[in-house]
Structure formats: structure tokens, C-alpha cells
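Why do we care about 3D structure at all? Because function follows from shape, and shape follows, mostly, from sequence. That is the central idea of this module. The next example makes it concrete: a single protein chain, its amino acid sequence, and then its structure expressed as C-alpha cells.
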Amino acid sequence: MTATESPVISSSRDLWRQIVVLLSAVIAVVVSFLGSGAVVGTPVSEVAGGVLDSDATLVAPGGAAFAIWGVIYTGLLLLGLNQAMSWRRTDARQRRTGWWITASALLNAAWIAAVQLAWLVVSVVLLIALVAVLVIIMIRLNERPATTRYEAVVVDGTVGLYLGWACIATVANSAAAGLDAGIAATGTIALWSAVVVLVVAAVVGVVLAVGLKGRLAPAIGLGWGLAWVAVERASGIPQAPVVAIVAAAAAAVTVLAAVVVRARFGPSAVRENQAVRDF
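And the structure:
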């Protein structure tokens, strides 16, 4: 610190931010567990007559895809614990993203509650809001790269994976809401609507890759979901080979775009004297 610099002063707002972020992460995990139907409530795949099941619409990912939630929720808890450490209290990245991370966790909990109540249109609105909040967090994380590998994985990696998966979850929930409203899940119109939606998802993947300078985690989250849409439409019911091919291509484009953009921008070590590569 030079003679002209002032020390960063901790305030009660910083402490409250740390407490609230950690609590919101715990709330998101607890509500997710309760909303899974394992103890109370209805399994998500059975809500509203099963419109969210993997065989309900042409853009629903296979059941195994949802294992990613375990990774995301574990990451959220680790993120909450990481930012709660005393030396993180005045961290500029935490100050810039903490309240937004809280918003994302609470939106996630609200989304699960809406699904349990079979308020599918509301659930779609909440997912769109969640995606918007996660984009804001990622943009702010990009402004100040991580300083440790642990932070890059636990903070940037978790939020990025969360963002990518939330994008495909929005697609699947929108289709489920349409089915619940009486829109046919199969047929020519449904088939080509699914194709268009998956192409749009690939475009979103490319936009995220460019806008976030080749972040891998969002591409992995979105690519994972798209890949499981491809698997389900290739081997599940209803089968839709065209949708499977487009979904697989969309997954490949999403991941490839991030890799190409990442290679173009090069290591984050060249800017702001950072020694850690963004994830």
C-alpha cells in the first residue's frame, strides 16, 4: 500500500452481507431438498400431471442431467462459506456480487416453491429473473478476476455452471408450462418449435462465450443440459431424431464457442497481474 492509498474499512454492512449470503445459500439447499419430494411435497417429475418429466416435452433433458444440481448446491454452500471468512469481508468481488448471489439463491428457492404449487408460468418468470441475475454476477466477476484457484472454481465455477444450467432449465420449464396450458407436446409444430428453441439456446451459448470472454463453466452447464436433451430424444420417449441431432449440435457449438473465444483472449494472467485463469 502506498502513502496515497487508504486501507479498506470494514463496515457492519459487510458483515450483514456475509451472513445473509451464507443463510441464503443454506435456504436454497434446504428448499431444494424439501422440494425434491424426498421428504415432503411432490417429486418434480410428477408435478402438474408430470409435465416436467423427461418424457413430457421434446426439450426436456434426460433424468440424469439433473445430477448437476448436486454440484451447483455444493458449490453454493462452499461459496457461502468462502465469502463468510473474515478476510473476505472487504473483498471487492464479494462487495460487488454478494447481494446478487443472495438474490439468485432466493430466486432458486422461490422457483422450487412455484413448481411445487404447479404455478408453471410463475416458475418460468422466476427462472428468467434468475438467469438475468446470474448474468449480472458473471459480468461483475469478470471485472475483477479471481486471485486464487479455489476462488476461481468455487465462486466463478459455481456461478457459471449455475447460469448455463438455468438457461436450459428455462427452456424446459417454458415447454412444460406450454404443455400444462394445453399446447401439444408432439407433432410437426412441436417438433420444429423444439428445433428453433434449441438453435436459440446455441445462440445464447455463443453470446455468453463472447460476452464473458470464453468462460468455460457457463458453456459446460448449458452444454450438459443440451447433451441430455439429445440423449433423451435419441433413446427415450418420445423419440425425435431431428431434435436429438440439433440438441447435440447445439451442445457442441456452445462448448466450442467458449473454447475458441477463450483461446483468443488468452490467459487472464496477462491482465491485472492475475495468476489464475478464469473458469
